Amino acid sequence: MINKNSPIPIYYQLAESIQKQIDSGDLQPGESLPSEREYAEKFEISRMTARQALNQLVNNGYLYRVQGKGTFVADKKIEKPLVGITSFTEDMLARGMKPSSELLHFELIPATEHIANQLQIKEHRPVYEIKRIRLADDVPMAIETNYISANLVKGLTEQIVNHSIYAYMENQLGLRIEQATQTIESSIAEPIEAQSLQIKPGVPVMRIQRIAYLHDGTPAEYVISSYRADRYKFMVQMHRK
Ligand code: 16G
Asked: Which of 73, 102, 125 is the last residue of a domain?
């Protein structure tokens, strides 16, 4: 499994072979891995090299460490296609997972200049500010803050946003989102975010900003969110012109 004469660094070979075991299902999520010492003895390599291999897989989200207990296989990342506008609720149901939300904040506020610009409304017009932790099978995946014009999406309540905002807009109000622009930037979790997401401060997150539009071009929501980079990856299929 490890070729010491190869120009490929030993730690890299070890990391690759562990990753293969994860991909093939030989190592299952939650399963504990041999210790650095055990890898070192088995392959006659230094503990430092074994640590380097495990570190790489921890940093890439394939493994996680529990202090005093060892290293474990992480759950597979959720692969979210970037084409097609879906709601968090739809995404999780499509994967056979249970979506839920923890409402951190729900308030009707006057639009700041920035929010008003994003939603193409006048400053100080009423907007809902909704901050939710989004969970899949009770595990926090993301924190989302939605800004929604109260004159467009009427009658939002805490009960409604505890379920699905998109379902309410479409099924109750007949407002269908047709387009969106979205940016994704990498960042690290701030302490308060990390607490909500149940991750350590400084762990990578993806900051996503979305403006979603109705068919006539009216902005229906402006959303700022932080997705756990250890649980999510984005996928897009591309064609060369
Ligand atoms: C997704 C959307 C978010 C939208 C939410 C509605 C991304 C990055 N964001 O999380 O813009 O507000 O779904 O979810 O995909 P809901 O209908 O379950 O409330």
From this structure: 73
Pocket of ligand 1 (CB under 6 A): 87-89, 144, 146, 164-167, 208, 210, 221, 223, 225
- CATH value at residue 55: 1.10.10.10
What is the SS3 assignment for 16?
helix
Q: Helical H runs in 32-112?
A: 36-43, 47-59, 88-94
Confirm whether 3 is domain-assigned: no
Mutate to test the pocket of ligand 1, among 97, 132, 144, 173 (most ligand atoms within 8 A of CB): 144
Note the pLDDT tens digit of each residue in 93-132.
999 999 999 999 999 999 999 999 999 999 999 999 999 9
Q: Mapping DSSP to helix (H, G, I), strand (E, B) and coil, where does residue 207 land?
A: strand
Rounded distance between C-alpha atoms, residue 93 and residue 134, angstroms: 13
What ipTM is given for this predicted complex? 0.98
- In whole angstroms, how far apart are CA 126 and each of 111, 115, 149? 6, 11, 6
